[in-house]
Amino acid sequence: MSRRVAVFSLGGTIAMTSDPHTPGVIPALSGQQLLAAVPGLSGLDLDVEVHDFRRVPGGSLAIDDVIALHASIGSVSADGVVVTQGTDTIEEVAYLLDLLESGDQPVVVTGAMRNPTLAGADGPSNLLAAIQVAGDATAAGLGCLVVFADEIHAARHVRKIHGTSVAAFASPDAGPLGYLVEGRVRWLTIPRRRPAVQLTPGVRVPRVPLVTATMGDDGELLRCVDDRFDGLVVAAFGAGHVPAAWVEPLATLAKRIPVVLASHPGGPLLTTTYMFPGSEIDLLRRGLIGAGFLNPAKARILLILLLMSGAERHEIARTFTAEGD
Q1: Which of 27, 123, 135, 292 could anchor a disulfide with 14, C-beta 3.0 to 4.6 Å?
Q2: pLDDT category of residue 20 using cuts at 50, 70 and 90
Q3: What is the DSSP string of 46-69?
């Protein structure tokens, strides 16, 4: 009996085409049209069904959209799931789905860097590879994956590292989990799973901004963070440093809301190396929460979901310690 793969299309570059009345391209292709453009798909021993979920650019997707997508994925009977979307938010969507996913059904997210009107459009090959991974029995229990340019990445580690290259995705801290080789899945390593985040039903999506440290910034934007926000993520210099002018407003905010400190360049957030105003030791002592290896965008996703689960501050800190390790 053929294994079943459900494809959910959300729009993005992979689904974009030209409009004679406007410049540029827009998300207009249906999921069925995407499948029709994939060479070799009919030769797979898979039963593929398609669901048109959204048709928007990746940057227009919201947290509520992804939570609704997760619910829709849970309502279908399939051995594996593929999500096609815009690349701008692939790493955030994939990580959010991974945090929510508790079953063995693999969810594979993919997209394209070159739209279908261009020579060498990469959407069909990425979609074929994603379907092959989702339909492979060895992908069961691995959570959410990102497949791009025949590489398989863990949602936890993958990052978009280039704005236009067809090799736009990588896992700088861990490397790919595996590859597609001649249509076969070849694993190099297997990711560690952890318990899914359980959201409290009916809770609104909290407002959590992300503020990036830059040279000479006087911290005035931080002083504007008031009762409208439920948490804050700071994208710090290096391994966890900010301008000295930021220390006072961050310490004040950390007494009221969870403030998470993440490394903007990537790599781990240090905890015991530097001690000066605005260093990681200084900020952690003032109540900020270290994100470990999580990059700022993913730290924000995790903080949002933890707040939606009703987690207290000590639980948030403990989860970041475990997830960022």
Answers
A1: 123
A2: confident
A3: EEEEEEEEEEE-GGG--HHHHHHH
Residue 160's pLDDT is what? Answer: 97
Q: 187, 219, 251: which is the final residue of a domain?
A: 187
Check whether residue 47 and residue 154 sit in a common domain.
yes
What pLDDT sits at residue 227?
Answer: 82
Domain count, the chain: 2
Q: Of 109, 133, 127, 159, which is closest to residue 266 (Cα–Cα)?
A: 159
**Token pair in block for residue 42:** 């009919």
Residues 153, 147 contacting (CB under 8 angstroms): yes
Residue whose C-alpha is closest to residue 65's, from 101, 19, 96: 96
Q: Which tens digit of pLDDT belongs to each residue from 42-99?
A: 899 999 999 999 999 999 999 999 999 999 999 999 999 999 999 999 999 999 999 9
Specify which residues 18 forms β-bridges with.
Answer: 25
114 pLDDT tier (thresholds 50, 70, 90): very high
- Same-domain pairing of 37 and 107: yes
Q: At which residue do the structure tokens 């440093």 appear? A: 241
Q: CA–CA separation, 15 vs 33, rounded Å? A: 9
What CATH number does the domain containing 77 carry? 3.40.50.1170
Measured CA to CA, the distance from residue 172 to residue 26 in angstroms comes to 31
Q: What is the pTM of this model?
A: 0.95
Do the domain assignments include residue 230? yes
* DSSP annotation of 17: E
Amino acid (one-letter) located at 269? L
Structure tokens given for 107? 């969810």
Find the domain containing 312 and state its range: 210-324
13, 87, 110, 319: which is the annotated catalytic residue? 13
Confirm whether 13 is a catalytic residue: yes
For 4, the 3-state DSSP assignment is: strand
Are 239 and 267 within 8 A, CB to CB? Answer: yes
Distance CA(125)–CA(120), nearest Å, equals 10
**Are residue 183 and residue 215 in the same domain, yes or no?**
no
Q: What is the pLDDT of residue 208?
A: 97
Element (H, E) at 296: helix 296-308
